[in-house]
Specification:
single chain; 94 residues; Glutaredoxin; four-stranded mixed beta sheet; alpha+beta
């Protein structure tokens, strides 16, 4: 999956995931779909590549952080994500 990244985006989303994780695949699909209408950068972190992250999150994934703050765990609801992102965008426009 090709997750787009941009240095110009003020909103940064990090997703903690691992291979063969169905919920992770669903969450990534939601992020990519929402990204079509709202600009944000996505960084995917494979927890199997970091022993400490793996020990902390093992089966507690996916976890989604927005600008460093935990926003979702297990499931990402598209409408809830859009609302959160709209609030963040509104703060940046002030």
């Amino acid at each position: 999956m090709n997750l787009r990244r941009s240095r110009q985006n003020a909103i940064k989303i990090k997703i903690l995931s691992k291979p063969d994780c169905h919920l992770c695949d669903v969450a990534k699909a939601v992020l990519l779909d929402v990204q079509k209408t709202i600009s944000f950068a996505i960084e995917e972190i494979d927890i199997t590549e970091d022993r400490a992250l793996f020990e902390e999150f093992k089966e507690k994934i996916p976890v989604i952080f927005i600008n460093g703050r935990k926003a979702f765990k297990y499931r990402v609801e598209p409408d809830a994500l859009r609302r959160r992102l709209a609030r963040i965008e509104a703060r940046y426009k002030k």
